[in-house]
């Protein structure tokens, strides 16, 4: 009896012999996550705190389908109304260290793992539908500005605003971060988003572009600057305490999952680049389609083993859900799994929280840290003596029926200027959606740190605010003047 060949997350592999290339003679695509996983694991076969999202909380629960999406995807966890799939979710702040306060003004990580019968599917997003960047090549630079200054070891407003002033694509996310939604009151009272554009495909081989939206059923609640400052001193772990306590008391938090779905060919004619992470898709063009309900109802028994060692990665994809040309996503497909290999070890997916609970992992990766760790969900499964494929020794075999449809590409291989994209319209739209008190609170929050930087940086930022909305710039300028 032969077993199907899978990746470490248990997802079946359709082709283990050929890399994903742009044309028969073209270059290899970075999004070939199976190739990257094989090479990165091989590099570590011979025998620290997360760089970002270090402070976090998490719990287990279920996802229940309320709307069969089989017309869009072959992914089993999005089909058959009433079907339940086990999940684990981790929430986090982004920039702070493991001992930092939960009430910081910072995006919140919102990572969901579906333990499906075809492997683990991770949606690794934030509580915002957009991000500061559209190209992963800038991610290390951005995070350096959010961390401590290498000389003073203090947080650095000059670096933060200097970077943003030179990268106007960040303005949309900056406006969200500095708004009233910049400090969620708890993890239960915020939305979650996959943020990136992903793909789905159905049994007919039709591809759709997709965005994930987890809408809180508890309602949105946020903290003011004054409330957050007090809470950081009174209880720096308030969000962890709130999540654990609510589940312990039987008050299970819930989110409704909605999808925005775009037919593949629409992307070629849509006026917004649908793969730009700094943009949202207007709901009037692609309305929300309900998919199901996410409920958290079980706390971890050991926080370190089950939450701290939880290793989420956008490359944990399953048949029916794939990547897109989103440049930030393309970079994260490699960076997140590689960070886990560095942080935990080459076989991190064999730890109980990371192994595929509902499917058996069969692959040819051997040795390295945690080698021999048995996934408790599948008993004492024995490896065959063969560690290469293909073979005639009864090793696992690829499953061609799970192949993603080919993606049509065009254009020259080049480094395209990310500054060519439009940066200000959606930030201006968001500003105009706010009432006057919200606009003033936004300006005051921005001025609190922007007033501490050089005049040159202030002027560059004011020019960006003016591009979004003249009133936006005027309010911020007045708020800075009050602090002078």
Automatic annotation (TrEMBL):
<dbReference type="GO" id="GO:0046872">
    <property type="term" value="F:metal ion binding"/>
</dbReference>
<feature type="active site">
    <location>
        <position position="126"/>
    </location>
</feature>
<keyword id="KW-0408">Iron</keyword>
<dbReference type="GO" id="GO:0005737">
    <property type="term" value="C:cytoplasm"/>
</dbReference>
<feature type="region of interest" description="Disordered">
    <location>
        <begin position="1"/>
        <end position="20"/>
    </location>
</feature>
<dbReference type="InterPro" id="IPR011614">
    <property type="entry name" value="Catalase_core"/>
</dbReference>
<dbReference type="Pfam" id="PF06628">
    <property type="entry name" value="Catalase-rel"/>
</dbReference>
<dbReference type="InterPro" id="IPR020835">
    <property type="entry name" value="Catalase_sf"/>
</dbReference>
<feature type="region of interest" description="Disordered">
    <location>
        <begin position="384"/>
        <end position="403"/>
    </location>
</feature>
<dbReference type="GO" id="GO:0004096">
    <property type="term" value="F:catalase activity"/>
</dbReference>
<feature type="binding site" description="axial binding residue">
    <location>
        <position position="336"/>
    </location>
    <ligand>
        <name>heme</name>
    </ligand>
</feature>
<dbReference type="InterPro" id="IPR024711">
    <property type="entry name" value="Catalase_clade1/3"/>
</dbReference>
<dbReference type="InterPro" id="IPR024708">
    <property type="entry name" value="Catalase_AS"/>
</dbReference>
<comment type="similarity">
    <text>Belongs to the catalase family.</text>
</comment>
<protein>
    <recommendedName>
        <fullName>Catalase</fullName>
        <ecNumber>1.11.1.6</ecNumber>
    </recommendedName>
</protein>
<dbReference type="GO" id="GO:0020037">
    <property type="term" value="F:heme binding"/>
</dbReference>
<dbReference type="InterPro" id="IPR002226">
    <property type="entry name" value="Catalase_haem_BS"/>
</dbReference>
<dbReference type="GO" id="GO:0042744">
    <property type="term" value="P:hydrogen peroxide catabolic process"/>
</dbReference>
<feature type="active site">
    <location>
        <position position="53"/>
    </location>
</feature>
<keyword id="KW-0479">Metal-binding</keyword>
<dbReference type="Pfam" id="PF00199">
    <property type="entry name" value="Catalase"/>
</dbReference>
<dbReference type="InterPro" id="IPR040333">
    <property type="entry name" value="Catalase_3"/>
</dbReference>
<keyword id="KW-0376">Hydrogen peroxide</keyword>
<keyword id="KW-0349">Heme</keyword>
<feature type="compositionally biased region" description="Polar residues">
    <location>
        <begin position="389"/>
        <end position="401"/>
    </location>
</feature>
<dbReference type="InterPro" id="IPR018028">
    <property type="entry name" value="Catalase"/>
</dbReference>
<keyword id="KW-0560">Oxidoreductase</keyword>
<feature type="domain" description="Catalase core">
    <location>
        <begin position="6"/>
        <end position="397"/>
    </location>
</feature>
<keyword id="KW-0575">Peroxidase</keyword>
<dbReference type="GO" id="GO:0042542">
    <property type="term" value="P:response to hydrogen peroxide"/>
</dbReference>
<dbReference type="InterPro" id="IPR010582">
    <property type="entry name" value="Catalase_immune_responsive"/>
</dbReference>
